[in-house]
Amino acid sequence: MLKVQKKVAESSSFNLLTVYLTFFFSISNTFVLARLLTPEEWALLILVISFINIAIFLSNLFPPNAQETIMYYIPHLSINSNNQEVRRKFIIHVYKIRLISAFLILLLYLLITLLADFGTILFSMILIMSPMILCKVLIDLNDSVLYAFHKFKSVFFARILNPITVTTINFLIYFYKLDKPIFLISYAFLLGTIVSGIVSMILIISFISSKAKGELEGFDQKSEFYNIHRKYGTYLILADVFGLLTGLIVNILFLEFEFVVFITYITICQISATSALLFSSSNPEAYISIFSEIDYEKNSEVYQNLFYKLNKFLMIFVCIIVGIMIFYIEFYIVVIYSEIYLVILRAIQLFLFMAFAQVIINNLMILTLSTNNTKINAEIEFIRMIITIVFTIIVLLYFDFFTLIIFYLLCSFLMTFISVYLINKQTELQLNFVFFFKPFIIFLVSFIIVYPLNYLINIDYFDKAYINFFINGTIKFSVFALVFYIIFYFTKTITKKEFNDMIKIIPILNSKNYLIRKLVQKIEIFLPSQKGGGKKP
Predict the structure, then answer these.
(1) Is 226 helix (H, G, I), strand (E, B) or coil?
(2) 3-state class of 268 per DSSP?
(3) What is the DSSP letter of 371?
(4) How far is it, in rounded angstroms, from Cα 362 to Cα 409?
(5) How high is the pLDDT of residue 117?
């Protein structure tokens, strides 16, 4: 159990480190883009990246959802040393099919672009960024192999190079005030993916080149690998199709109803919520290989125990991050995006609550992806697609942008209940609804108590608006943090014992460093003692 916990802790540590640094560079990059591009130009960049993602998705049809399949099956093959050559052949097989399909789709993509009348700017951007299709496919494959072998540190080094490269180039464009920045920004995105792809490829060479001794008797490679893809990847492809169609149809609706700027507004809201989500390390890919290995070994008690612990700590991280972002949102918007985007301030604040729903769904996806219950993923995405499209049409016909955000928020929480219901119905697990929502309920109660401060505290002493926003946000967040802690303490959401268990498996908290040990001791003082009876979730 301790060995497995350490794997989860290592995965979480490097995943968090990747997220924090990526977030820093992404925010820096967003700061530059908001000042280099008009909202309309930014919308064009978003559309081009969407086209790139569509092409990447199409390449993922052959073989279906190769990344998740690698992370699910490689741990199974790694347990038995006799499967080493099968494992190597499986990796090579996936790379061949996926890269060939990506190359053919790239050619088709370029042909369609040449024949279509997209306009000069959009056409040029698509041509510049099109090689990203191959690069991103390669990066995704490399990351999945590294995750499958629990090489979390390697994934960190490979991934972080992309945002560093892109942000550095965009800052140079900004400081030197270069002409036609939208095209130079397109080259920056391309170069970032190329650098990251080359480094990650170097890191995984050893897993492909080391051929095991002996021949594979009675092994039909084509048949075996086809069964793996068919059994695991087919439903994930359907889920991706539904997710892709949802985003595509929504963007088309915005264009059809002549609300192009909504694309930019929605993107800003999504970036804000995704930032809070990523800071929680709620990334299913980081945990699939670990939980798949536990499930394969039939350690159901260890599996469920570990899952509940992981979910609780990730939800608490989200509470902290969303709390910070909600109360500092005015400062965040002015510094990162500029004051013109304050018009959607309340929409962004409301959209941040979606991070809670998404972190629950992401954690539930760990269960479906690591136990080969991927049919549930397809069902969830199909239901989400229908609800989202219907809501979008109704709002665009009769309401405004803020109402659209409310509908999306309600939809996201509805999907969490549907997800838990489907998992309880179709698997042997019987998940507790209250357990998943308890940290969010504590957060919501605390927020409602503190919300009147928005009308009572409005310091406006300084000439610079962002200074006033920062001071106001600090006061409001401090009161919120106090209220949240009081409720958190008396509900015994995390006890001293649970915190000590966490310390044992998280390297940074288990450090012998004097300052870290003192910090850990101070944190423990403010936690309640063990609950009576020790009731399990």
Answers:
(1) helix
(2) helix
(3) T
(4) 16
(5) 62
